[in-house]
Amino acid sequence: MPELPEVETIKNDLLPWVKGHRFSQVAILDARIIARGSVEDFCQGLIGQTVTALDRRGKYLLFHLSDNKCLIIHLRMTGVLLLDSGNSGRYTRAVFHFSNGRRIVFNDRRRLGLMWLSNSADPTISKLGPEPLSEDFTPEMLSKRLANHQIPIKAALTDQSIIAGIGNMYADEALFGAGIHPLKRANSLSSTEIYTLFRWIQRTLQAAIQSQGASVNTYLRPDGQQGTAHFQFRVAHRGGEPCSVCSTPIERIEVRGRGTYFCPKCQRLG
DNA sequence: CTTGGGACCTGGCTGC
DNA sequence: TGCAGCCAGGTCCCAA
Question: DSSP alpha helices (H): ranges in chain A?
Answer without folding.
Answer: 4-18, 39-46, 123-126, 139-147, 153-157, 168-178, 191-210
